[in-house]
What does this fold into?
Amino acid sequence: MLLAEDPFDLLIERLRELPPGDRRGVLARLSSTERRRVEAALLRPPLVVQPSFAADIAERIGAAATHPGMTAATREVLSRLVGNEAMVATPVAGTGPSLFGRLGDLLRRR
It folds into this structure.
């Protein structure tokens, strides 16, 4: 959902994603001045969308699919965030003990 404070370019990108009929419906509700401004913006080439996270984070997300310590739940959450379904299907290669398991081992040794 768009908010009033969202930038105009975001509105245009969202309008481009709409089916033609829906886009015409939105344009019909605008005043003639607003409609001309939006139609002119729709004729311009689309903006290049930059990733919403830094390159090092993107690299880590990409490596998460094969990381042996990544749990299935974490892999699923990351895949939803970045829209990468291949990450979910990656089987988990044997996981180590949990944090509580390690703490228990430390306490039992004494």
